[in-house]
Amino acid sequence: MPGDTLITSENDTDIELDFAGVEDFQENHKREKHYGKRRNGDRQQNKRENQRRKRSSKSVQGIREESQSKTERRERSRRRKGKAEHETSGHEGNKRERDQTRAKSTKSKKNIKNEKTRKLEGKEDGEAQEKSEKGKLKLVCAKNEEKIESGDQLKEKEKALGVKKKKKRRKKVVETSSEPETSEDGDDEEEVNNDGEVRPELLSPEELEKLKEAVDEKKKLIQSLRGKPWPMKQKLVTLRESQLFVEKYEGALGKGKGRKLYAYKVMMTKKWMKFQRDFENFKTACIPWEMKIKEIESHFGSSVASYFIFLRWMYSINMILFGLTFGLVMVPEALMGRPYGSIPRKTVPRAEEAGAMDFAVLWDFGGYAQYSVLFYGYYNNQRAIGWFKFRMPLSYFLVGVGTVAYSYMVVIRTMARNANESGIGDDNSFNFSWKMFTSWDYLIGNPETADNKFASITTSFKEAILEEQESRKDDNIHLTRFLRVLANFLVLCCLAGSGYLIYFVVRRSQKFALDGLENHSWWERNEVNMVMSLLGMFCPMLFDVISTLENYHPRVALQWQLGRIFALFLGNLYTFIIALMDAINLKRKEEKVVKYNITMWEASLYNGTGSENSTAPPITIHPADVPRGPCWETMVGQEFVRLIISDTMTTYITLLIGDFLRAVLVRFLNHCWCWDLEAGFPSYSEFDVSGNVLGLIFNQGMIWMGAFYAPCLPALNLLRLHVSMYLQCWAVMCCNVPQERVFKASGSNNFYMAMLLVILFLSTLPAIYTIVTIPPSFDCGPFSGKNRMFDVIQETLESDFPAWFSKVFSYASNPGLVLPFILLMVLAIYYLQSTSKSYKEANVELKKKLQMQNEENKKKNKQAALKAQMDLEEARKSASQTAVHQRNNNDSVQRREDDEEIDNKNQRMYHGRNPSPSVGNREPHFPVRDPGPRNAHNGNHGNPRYLPGFHQQSEPRMCRVPSLERH
Amino acid sequence: MVSPAIALAFLPLLLTLIIRYRYYFVLFYRAVLVRIWKDCVTGLSREERAFQYVLTNSTPGDPDSILDAFDYWSSKVEFISNIGPKKGKILDRLLMEQSPLTVLELGAHCGYSTVRIARALPLGARLYSIEMDQGNAAIAEKIIRLAGFDDDTVELIVNPSDEVIPRLRSDYNLERLDFVFMDHWKKCYLPDLQLLEGYGLLGKGSMIVADNVLFPGAPKFLRYLRKCGLYEWKIHRATLEYSKGIRDGMAELIYQGIK
């Protein structure tokens, strides 16, 4: 047989290994000893049983001995060889004793191995016997047998376990010795599997049958493992081993020709799964910054990570905004529009030409930067540009509208998705259970953070308990209230102060602007931005300090903090916008004057020329010399760009000074300082989630507001986000410490989104207001010469579309049609709203129902248990009385076997005889019954026959998670 | 020239810093400024002033009244870094539970903690107190005698701790220390602990209590504790003595030996 050669070759290596790997052997030996101890007890029983068996089925056994499976035979031969080898090597003095013990143990192991095969047959025997025999004899017999068999089974399992472990270990060693690089687990397993797939071809049908039986046995064992009265560790080990066994040999049991196919299939599924896993990894690697964020999450908890996820999301949105503006506005104008210097709006005026390339000017986005595609004023009002008639003004307008519309859509869609995820959580009920089972953040991978999280969970428990007590006690509420009111008052004062400061600064800057900016220093010119940034940076700190007065839960405190910072930023932003409005009005007044002057200037020009020679061609004036209006749109765009720049700068500088410098000082001054800087006074900074998120949101708001007048804003913002992603990731990992109170960010995501939506709305308001009410400048921008900016749509409709289309459009925009449509939409919204509300109510109802049912089930179970107990007591009493009548009763029991009542009686009788049976022992007393497809948790009480009280329980138990054993 | 508005924008930062670190400012004022001023005015050292106050305001022979006088002086008049009443209670409890027979105190300063420990000791126990500074030691001696503890109970050793510890076994016939209280230089915590280990003065179950491990702080000491695994240890969190807002801790170590 080809198999034999294969086996012997393998054995050879094994033996050599045994010889070499003394340690390995020692360990095996130890384990065997350990098992041996347990086995000794069983052995006597087995002997008894075996003798009995031998009488009845000697011949069968003989056959069996002959036809032992090849695997076992191999095992044996291997062991034998190993033994021999060790005996020969036993000359080495101190090893001898050990070897002898090993030999003994292997012998005993062999015995047991035989018994295992016998046992299988014995079970069948027992069943046959039970079917044939009747009466008391049968009962006793069955009992004994079952007892023995259960013991046997246990032992057999351990046995198989040991054997298999050994086998595996050997295989592992073989592998490592042959190719030491590939000692990974996965490879090992594959090896084992391959073995399992290859081997069955060498087996005879009988052996296959046996193997099948063994696999079935294992499967049964897995299913009924839950009910076994073993320690958890043993259960786990057994489960793992059995699963391995089943996995290994199940593939071998395909039939005939299909076997190979099956093996192939299994192999392919394995490969496919591996590929899928790799592909998942690849996909994760493809998500930008995913690994960075995960690392931060593992160090700082999910609340900090949520900021970075938000940042990434923002980045993706800005990417699209940038794509729109860049692709449809800036690039066409730069490529196809008139070049720089061709018309006045595209040329730096003569007065500014000298310093137009200075860095200070460019940094302020004046000079050449102002007269470029970056700003509104550069664009020409030519209707179509380039060889394929790109409608520039229309595109400009539509992109402006489209970016805002897209942002709305995305934000609302994300909000809706988040709302779905958050579901219906009522935070008030089951407060402690929630805390108990859900407070751990499983993404934490850093011991320090884990410590912090642990501490925060404990404190949260303490606080919750205190809260519970206090809610009952209800004292000191006045003080708390007073403190909270006081805190809010202080915050309001702070807000008012900062608002006034900004107002003051803006007024001053207007004065400066009237004087002429050149006369003032850089500080004074940039005062507004500086003050706004500084206030936006420092006031939140003050709020944070004030909020310690209030003594809120950190999550609530975070929301308050967010709300306050929101108010602050909003106030600042709107002060800024109001100031801008004033500036716009000033510019428009100036524009009127300039317009008048220009007509005068042109008239004088023409008059001057006309007097000399009326037919001469018009004098060409260099576009830099042409007088021009102030172009308020560009001014607005510039202001926003400056604001963004200064904001970014402040953020980065704060990061570098507040976090990095501080961390460096703390780290390196700690050696020579009189107190512990790291743990005590300055310490390292924590990552300020709320401030950063709000900064991001307001930044985005400014982008939305200013993007219409400065198409470069999305590009700038993209740059900023990109840089801050890397910078902040680095700063967080290098100079921040995990928050002392790590809390999960759950639920706050939608809070951020809601704020973003509000900001979006608030930032589109001024933009829309300016677009709708203020006429565009007369000599700059794509809409120059029009009365309003949106006139461009009408113009396009009239000139670019066929007549019928504009007719249809005019009909469609008829108020008689629009109003009903709006009405219909309102109705639809109302309808959807009410349906969703009713769904929510239904959900709540269902939840309540589930809860009720649960409670009822619990009650029922309790009652059943009580009843069972009473029955038991009763049975004990009656058993002592009716000891004489037992046998008669038993007869009747056997006749009506499937009747439950009688089973109960049976049970009682049994209890009468043996007054302290454990639940686990009770199960195998009725070996006739096939345990069947028992559920995991039903192992004990699911089958109503075994426990008298539980046959009432028919409803599914919802509180349990079914089939846990599969995990 | 920076405009006033920008300067005004820094006001919230200033307020924040002042509010957040107010306890540290108060501590700085009390422990440094007041001390310098008083030193100049009276010409006495801080410890001498404290001793004068205690001498006039306490009952001789009554440790409790001496401790109370100290506490009052340190919290109301000036600041002196004793262990303080709150952490002192923890120390008392530990001493009661342990009831050690040989106690070593590193850093007697002006005798407050010495009196505190001696008060809680069982009969027949002996306290060795090490103080480096000559002047402080003289005052500590006076305070200890004032509290009514004689040479048999408390032995004051005037020498730096790193010189005394190697000689403890030879000069003082010490085999094993049951209890060690550390309150001297925070930088010496770790070397002294290692010295104690090295000279085999710690037995299984010996307790070591180290004060001020968080606020002035002994980070190396704590790091060593985390790493070495010789001790079962925990930190009793409290506030700095005579101050409410500064967090501090007392480390309690039980020597387990090498397992």
Automatic annotation (TrEMBL), chain B:
It catalyses: a catechol + S-adenosyl-L-methionine = a guaiacol + S-adenosyl-L-homocysteine + H(+). One of its GO terms (cellular component) is endoplasmic reticulum. This is catechol O-methyltransferase. Keywords: Catecholamine metabolism, Endoplasmic reticulum, Hearing, Methyltransferase, Neurotransmitter degradation, S-adenosyl-L-methionine, Transferase. It is an enzyme of class 2 (transferase). Belongs to the class I-like SAM-binding methyltransferase superfamily. Cation-dependent O-methyltransferase family. One of its GO terms (molecular function) is catechol O-methyltransferase activity. Its EC number is 2.1.1.6. InterPro entries: SAM-dependent_MTases_sf, SAM_O-MeTrfase. Coiled coil: none annotated. It is found in: Endoplasmic reticulum. One of its GO terms (biological process) is endocytosis. SUPFAM superfamilies: S-adenosyl-L-methionine-dependent methyltransferases (SSF53335). It holds the Pfam family Methyltransf_3. It comes from the Eukaryota.
